[in-house]
Design goal:
The complex is a heterodimer. Chain A is built from twelve helices and four strands; from the N terminus they run ββββαααααααααααα. Chain A is mainly α. Chain A has a two-stranded antiparallel ribbon. Chain A has a two-stranded antiparallel sheet with strand order 2-3. The longest helix of chain A is centred in the last third of the chain and has 18 residues, at 221-238. Chain A is elongated. The two termini of chain A are 30 Å apart. Chain B has two domains: 4-124, Glutathione S-transferase Yfyf (Class Pi), Chain A, domain 2, CATH 1.20.1050.140; 143-299, Rossmann fold, CATH 3.40.50.11810. Chain B has twelve helices and eight strands. Chain B has helices at residues 9-12, 17-29, 53-70, 81-96, 98-111, 125-132, 134-141, 183-190, 214-230, 241-258, 269-276, 294-299; strands at residues 4-6, 35-36, 75-78, 121-124, 150-154, 194-195, 235-238, 265-268. In chain B, helix 3 crosses helix 4 (81-96). The chains are: A mainly alpha, B alpha/beta. Chains A and B meet through helix 3, helix 6, helix 7, helix 8 and helix 9 of A and helix 3, helix 5, helix 9 and helix 10 of B.
Chain lengths: 239, 303
Amino acid sequence: MAIHEKTLIDPDRILQHDHLVVDGVDVSGSWNTMISPRTLVDYEPDFEKIIQSYGGGENVHRCWQCGSCTNSCTMYAQNVDFNPRYWIYLIRLGLKAELMKDKDIIWQCVSCNKCTNICPKDVRPEGVMKATAHWLEENGYTPKTLSTHFDEEFTHQCLEYGRIEDTEVMMGFFKRSGQPLVQTWIINFGKNLSKHMPLGQLAKMGLNVVFRPKTKSWGRTGEVLAEYVKTQKEAAHHG
Amino acid sequence: MAKVAYYPGCALEGSGGPYDKSTRVLVKELGLEMENLEDYNCCGAMEVKNIHPMLQTYMSARNLAIASKLQGCDTVMAPCNGCYRNLKQTEYECATSEETMKTVQDLAEKSGDPVYDGDVRSLHALEWFMEEVGPEGIKSRVKKSLNGLKIANYYGCMYTRPRQIFPEKDQGPGSESSYAPHFMDDLLNAAGAEAVDFPLKTACCGGAHTLSDSDTSTQLVLNILQAAEDAGAEVIATECPTCHSGLEMHQVRAEVEFGIKTNVKVIYFTQLLGLAMGLSPRKVGIPDNVSDSMDLLAAKGIV
């Protein structure tokens, strides 16, 4: 695997030569491609295996670093620090400390699947992002993100009732994540909604909250699925 | 003709109400037949797979099995991109991995659910209309032309990605393209609209983080709204309830929180086709949208 390590060109690794003349040519200045020899000792040999044990991370070992994922990434266009190709590289080499520098943005993956669509090696980078974000949370490196709160509320309702109800998911999410429900833009949105919406549709949405839609035949399904997930997670992390 | 079970999904029975309403009246108007998928469950959307991927696979498999085993249908039709994508993903995972198929069947037996065995296909509403009616069929049924209404056709993420799970796409003439989808363009152009050259057809609206990372979603939605306006569009046609509410919500949020105003209207493609079939705006749920398009439609002589 080729070397693509950003730390090598970090500011503190740039060599500065104020007066350097080679064969009569003045080459003074910053030399960020001249790298001091060094030995890496702070890597974690099992890091790749750990990420593989989280849902979505299974194929991370297949990466050959072409960079198609980062090139196509929706979030990379928003923020150039959002670099799936680089994170996959760090995971494979076990460079945990370097990955930690970006720990607070990895969860922002929007699951647009452009990376998984384009990847020539079926790495499924979108899944790797989710696996990495979950690993960060479960090990206390990042607080539980809003996104995970949302996933948990959504999944809770699915397992309990077989179906979700929009308003209830929203309320549950705001409650779980400790956010105020009263935000200016939500109020304006609500006003727009009720300004145009005929009474029938409003009443229907209101009734949904009181008599929430359920899957009648859901029966044991929710329990069976919850049990399956529990067993699988135990096997993956304590096996 | 395929025997079709209609899977509206949770969104169409909640905030995507106008999409459900317009789909049902349009299907009737086009003379197509479908029955409701009975007592369906949620497809898991983009959320449950983050708890465990098998949850998503199983939940879609259960819906497919209800259609084939309990209702004798050979096709499940979903107008929601999220539902559609998850159904396709399940078809793909079960067809390519014996282990996944076995796990799905074991879980079904344990739960006392109908057992999925791969004998049913899933279609997006767009694909079904293309298969049964097509642009020519639409043209012959138009009662009220869309009068050259300039439309940016927006397909979002889940209708085409990842392309691996859509083996019927990219099969040459007549098939849908995963990198430049055109089914919605074809149908709406046949109804008299003019599709503008829209570069962000399959861009992401940030739907996964609409609430959990609102600023990112607002930026992504603004990209789409502004690109549509730059391309000369008066309307963005949508075919996914999550995209549609994302565009509506963040159009409002961009104006309230950042003072950035855009005027392009957001309308479901089923509503536009319904209008072209001569159905009234109320019947297809135009007044139920947050994006208020009545003045524009009146000015264009469509309503």
